[in-house]
Amino acid sequence: MKTGLKALESDRLLERYHELVDKRLQRPLEHDELIEMERIEARLDAGDQDDASRLTILHDDWRRERNELVTLIERLSTRLKDAS
User: Fold this and answer.
1) Alpha helices for the chain (secondary structure H)
2) For the residues 9-24, what does the mean pLDDT come to?
3) What's the rounded Cα separation, in Å, for the pair 47 and 52?
4) 41-65: buried (b, 16+ CB within 10 Å) or exposed (e) per residue?
5) Is 54 domain-assigned?
6) At 7, which helix (H) or strand (E)?
7) Residue 2 lies in a domain
8) 24-36 confidence digits (pLDDT tens)
9) Which structural domain, as residue segments, surrounds residue 68?
């Protein structure tokens, strides 16, 4: 398949990758198929890294918000104890 990899959507890209893996199990891949497979793997890896980066950012945001809430709760608790 001689389609521009950048034009393929994620689902189609993954589908094409599996097609090439299946072919590789049946016979050696042609040179252009090997190159295509390497490019697909690189694009899929980059997507995984982007997802991991987003998860790290979300986790950091969650931890920061959690710490702010804990601090606020501790302040309120201290005020309530002082008021009683």
Assistant:
1) 10-26, 31-83
2) 90
3) 9
4) eebeeeeeeeeeeeeeeeeeeeeee
5) yes
6) none
7) no
8) 999 999 999 999 9
9) 8-83
Residue entry with tokens 């993954």: 14
C-alpha distances in Å from residue 81, one per residue of 67, 69, 71, 76, 84: 21, 18, 15, 9, 5
Q: Which residue shows structure tokens 């299946």?
A: 22
Here the tokens at position 78 are 């201290």
For residues 81 and 84, give the distance between their C-alpha atoms in angstroms, rounded to a whole number.
Answer: 5
Number of folded domains that form the chain:
1
Residue 16 near residue 40 (C-beta atoms within 8 A): yes
* Three-class DSSP category at 28: coil
What are the structure tokens assigned to 4, written together?
A: 């521009």
Residue 60 falls inside a structural domain? yes
Tokens of 60: 């950091």
Is the pTM of the predicted complex or chain greater than 0.70?
no
The answer to whether residue 15 sits within a structural domain is: yes
CA–CA separation, 16 vs 2, rounded Å?
11
Question: Hey, how many other C-beta atoms are within 10 angstroms of the C-beta on 36?
Answer: 19
